[in-house]
Write a structure and sequence with these properties.
By secondary structure, the chain is α+β, with helices and mostly antiparallel strands. Helices cover 35% and strands 18% of the residues. Strands 2-3-1-4 form a 4-stranded antiparallel beta sheet, with helices on one face. A hairpin with a 6-residue loop joins strand 2 and strand 3. It is elongated and about 55 Å long. 13% of the residues are buried.
């Protein structure tokens, strides 16, 4: 199975290591080694290779936004006026630079971008809409969806075999 044809292959060991690290990036390498049946130095080399080739982008703590004063999650569908390079790139940069934007996707369909934001209150969101949308001449329209409940929040990428549905 060649997942990275120009940089090597991800084998079962790599996928198992990635699954463990996605669950808890602080798992000691000796425990990972025991779990995947490799030596600790082999696990260390594989993790370094996964980082060097960009499979592992970064290690980060996952926070509860409400417990750090940002209890409101908002999804925003944004339509732009022009998809020419310069205005589109400027819009991308503005979205990427805003600390309130947790995720930003350039998408197909009715919207051009989908943003996921966290804010402390609606006044902060109102100020953000001025800065990101109303003052940006390339924004045609935006639609706001306020999350009522966080049902699932996860950035883990499935790396193992697909689970079988319950019979």
């Amino acid at each position: 199975m060649s997942i990275l044809p120009d940089r090597g292959e991800l084998d079962r060991f790599d996928l198992d290591i990635l699954a463990i690290l996605q669950g808890d990036a602080r798992t000691p390498q000796r425990l990972i080694a025991q779990a995947v049946n490799l030596s600790t130095p082999a696990v260390q080399r594989r993790i370094r290779r996964l980082e060097d080739t960009g499979v592992i982008l970064r290690n980060a703590a996952v926070l509860d936004p409400a417990r750090v004063g940002r209890p409101i999650t908002i999804l925003v569908a944004v339509e732009v006026e022009s998809e020419q390079s310069a205005p589109l790139d400027a819009t991308r940069l503005a979205f990427a630079a805003a600390p309130e934007v947790q995720q930003c996707y350039y998408v197909t369909g009715e919207a051009d971008f989908i943003l996921i934001l966290t804010v402390p209150d609606m006044a902060a969101y109102q100020a953000l809409t001025r800065r990101l949308f109303l003052d940006n001449p390339n924004i045609r329209r935006f639609r706001t969806f306020v999350a009522m409940e966080r049902v699932k929040v996860d950035l883990a990428v499935p790396v193992g075999p697909m689970p079988c549905p319950p019979c």
